[in-house]
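Dear Dr. V.,

Thank you for agreeing to look over these. As mentioned in my earlier message, I'm a first-year student in the group and I'm still getting used to reading structure tokens, so any feedback on how I've presented them would be very welcome. I ran two proteins. I've put each sequence directly above its structure. The first is here:
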Amino acid sequence: FGVLAFSQNIVKFLYTRVFRLFRKDVEYNQSVTNQVVENIRQAAGLGLLCYVFDIIEIVTEVAGIDNTNMNFSSLLSKLLYATWAAFRVRTYKRSFFAAT
């Protein structure tokens, strides 16, 4: 996740130097830019985890261990992304109702 943290630092630098000129009253941590970057960072981390599941499934199929016809990596990936999306919606809902 080092590359993701590095890219987040680049976006934070750009926000403080360029984008903040348009919205001087909003800090980076409370900005929409930070929320978008955080969502992309989390989705990329989940994508990496899904690739690990795919690799494990390929290794078990090549080794002859996997006898089922089910695609476990696909099921786990769908479950991970659906759970993550539900948590993100819950977070935005809470922050929306807290602001009103």
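The second protein is here, in the same arrangement:
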Amino acid sequence: FWCKIGYQAVDSEVSKLQGRTFGVWVCVTCVLCVLCACYIKEPAIFLATLLSFVIALVFFALEFLVYETMSPASIMSPFVVASISIIWMSYHYIYKMNSSAVHVKKD
């Protein structure tokens, strides 16, 4: 169902395996986002979540520009979410996480 909404591909090009793989990928991304929200000061989790949005943006851009399996309307939602998330998380990482490390009190 979700593949038919987001992709222009014919049914024969979208297998059940690809649909399940996409579903698992969405679940992993959700878990990363929840972990990042709970442990926002943990650099490894924060970076993994940021990179998941970068990977998603690259994936959808390739599907749209190279493979031409997505329409402009269908790429808009993941593009907006990934772009805003990357910008916000980069800002947070550069200005908030790095500045908190600088202001550590020494006893």
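From my reading of the second output: The mean pLDDT is 82. The first helix runs from residue 2 to 6. Does that match how you would interpret it?

Kind regards,
E.
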